[in-house]
Amino acid sequence: MQKIAELSGLILAGGRATRMGEQDKGLVLFDQMPLVKHLIDRFTPQLESISISCNRSFEQYQQFGCPLVKDQQSDFAGPLAGIEAGLAACTTPYLVVIPCDMPLLPDHLIERLWQPVADQISQKKTNLITVAHDGQRLQVLVMILPRSCRSSILSYLAEGGHSVHGWLKTQTSQSVDFSDEQSSFINLNSETELTNQESLLHP
After folding, report:
1. b/e per residue 3-22 (b: at least 16 CB within 10 A)
2. Please, are residues 123 and 169 in contact by the beta-carbon 8 Å criterion?
């Protein structure tokens, strides 16, 4: 697909990764390549730019040639804080958010998430958020949202909220069906899950 001029990307890699022994998850190797690099390679051709949300290991992340975004909130405040920082740095009207621990996301992810947004834009509406649904559950860290959402996220964080799901309930959002791609939404949270998934790729 062609690049979408209105859309840039953010890879969330700013968490503590406690189930990974607090390794920096985006830099953990999967199939001989850092998790974050799988997503950069897959989606860079489709986007104006991709930034990485990270709160440590800045020198290592710089090797990928992407802008780095650090949480403005203190002490690993969670993915919503990473999204807020990504929106603050975003130079396009919309941002697609992707977690670093889903290296198998489908190539057509962005195209499918973008279509309902494009339909809304054609009707002069610009507030829609689209969120992937894998057939079993809403994948709230895989979404496209307008840059204008930043103010509502800041308000939500200031009130003590941290849940992406909770914040989404206050917004105009639409789920996008990926039930035909359910296995592509496996997230790798532990060394065991990494090993098991690699063995499936290379039986």
Report:
1. ebebbbbbbbbbbebeebee
2. no
What integer pLDDT is reported at residue 197 of this predicted model?
84
CB neighbour list of residue 194: distance below 8 Å, 6 or more residues apart: 28, 30, 188
Q: How many CB atoms lie within 10 A of CB 186?
A: 17
Q: Which CATH class is domain 7-201?
A: alpha beta
Contacts of 88 (CB under 8 A, 6+ apart): 69, 72, 150
Query: What's the residue count for the chain?
Result: 203
- The rounded distance, in Å, linking the Cα atoms of 47 and 5 is 7
What 3-state class would DSSP assign to 142? strand
Q: How many CB atoms lie within 10 A of CB 119?
A: 12
| pLDDT of 190 | 77
Element (H, E) at 59: helix 58-62
Residue ranges per structural domain of the chain:
7-201
Residue pair 95/145 in contact (Cβ under 8 Å)? The answer is yes
| Integer angstrom CA distances of residue 30 from 8, 45, 109, 139, 143 | 25, 21, 20, 21, 23
Confidence of residue 52 (pLDDT cuts 50, 70, 90): very high
Per-residue DSSP letter, 195? H
